[in-house]
Design brief:
Elements (H helix, E strand, L loop, with lengths): L22 H24 L9 H4 L2 E4 L2 E4 L4 E7 L2 E6 L5 H9 L6 E5 L2 E5 L5 H34 L7 H34 L2
Antiparallel strand pairs: 1-2, 3-4, 4-6, 5-6
Helix pairs in contact: 1-4, 1-5, 4-5
Length: about 200
Amino acid sequence: GGKGGKGGGGGGGGGAGAEGVDSEGMMKDWDGQMSKVLDGLSLQFAGIRAGNATPELVNEVKVKAYGNTVNLKEVGSITIKDTKTLAVTCWDAEVVKDAAAAIQNCGLGFSVSMADTAILVGVPELTMDKRKQYVKMAREHSEKAKVAMRNVRQSAMKKVKGLKESTSEDFVRSLEQEVEKLVKKNVGEVDQMMKKKDAELTKT
């Protein structure tokens, strides 16, 4: 999903007391944090899709390996065997069992079988129920993304309020408005992405 034009820098409030505050740098930083959230959501959405088997479906499946939680694509190569089957070849034999379990339990209805050292992943036919389940999953991801953005907003507002001591009231107010605009823009992006995903998942 393309990211809309970058929100204007923290303009305005150039009056007394605004010296020494890099409001533009701060806005860039907050916008960057929210862009990261959007990128993460794009990756999650790529794994929820109708249609043929593609590696994106399982790339981001979380596997417990080496005392850590990693993405499936970090422990093996994922190839397309046919339109309904993926083959996952783990680089380390010890991870195979955990990887297979992770794919089976990720909630996307994959069937898992073994072929030598490869894990064969069967992609389910998309029933109406399955589509609904996928939409629900996508919604959960988008709600989490919005929460992450609200957290960025919260820490941004805290920082802006802290400038009251060293800058003017007007400057703080204009910066608060900039933050609100930025949050609104990015939350709007999430809604757009969700709308698109919903349409993609429910069209037959």
